[in-house]
Write a structure and sequence with these properties.
The chain is of the alpha/beta class. It is built from three helices and seven strands; from the N terminus they run βββαββαβαβ.
């Protein structure tokens, strides 16, 4: 798989990300910035520039199946979703941001 690269640029910061695997887990204790990172990715304010080679979609507990079925060549992010504990979800390969271990992916 090719490396997925994206960067987010504002007046205050530059964030660069490189993902080389199909499954990437961003794990950390509460309050360490995981959700803040997702808010940067989702931010649509005009003072933020995003250089992302793929669309970035944030899934929720209700619409994740349809989103995954209809989407190709995208990064799909699940922010501490309850869905990630299911066996059905464990068959998929996407970006996960969680506080808990993902034992079904091991």
């Amino acid at each position: 798989m090719n490396t997925i690269e994206f960067e987010i640029i504002s007046n205050q910061y530059v964030c660069k990300f490189y993902f080389e695997r199909r499954i990437n887990v961003i794990k950390g204790d509460s309050g360490t910035g995981k959700t803040s990172l997702l808010e940067l990715v989702r931010d649509t304010s005009p003072d933020i520039v995003k250089n992302i080679s793929l669309d970035v979609l944030v899934a929720d507990d209700l619409g994740w199946r349809a989103l995954m079925t209809a989407s190709k060549n995208v990064i799909i992010i699940f922010d501490d979703s309850n869905v990630i504990d299911s066996a059905e979800f464990a068959k998929c390969c996407y970006e996960y941001v969680v506080k808990n271990n993902l034992y079904l992916l091991i």
